[in-house]
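Entry for zinc ion complex. Fields follow.
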Amino acid sequence: MKTSLSEDAAETESIEKKISDETIKSAIMSVMERRSFVKSQEELTSFVNAEINDNFQPQKIRVLALEIPEIEVRVLTKKSNREKPTDCPSCGKRLKGLHAKNLLNQKVVVGLECLRCNYRGTLKSFAPFRYEFSLRK
Ligand SMILES: [Zn+2]
């Protein structure tokens, strides 16, 4: 299964690195407790990197933030001419199609959603361009 694969990868990574994923996650939490809302993954990353005095990539920080239940990640999408994704551009989980009936009463795909994170895209607008982070109330 996909999930167990990515968990294995995360475990190997944390053994190799000096700073464990758990440490990064608690740094993310303390940043979020201070700010409660951060408007992009780049901004969150710079706060977290300052906190733990390291230089992690925004994607890494975002993926770890997605694993923290207290943090809500909102994915803002923009128009794209590329092929629509089959896996979530935010967390990598397989996307679920959103269906609707058209005028001929046929079931058509009108969008995509991820059941793990909050990603939601339409067929025209599905490329993530910004991630917002907020503390769940
Ligand atoms: Zn997702």
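NOTE: The chain has one domain: 2-135.
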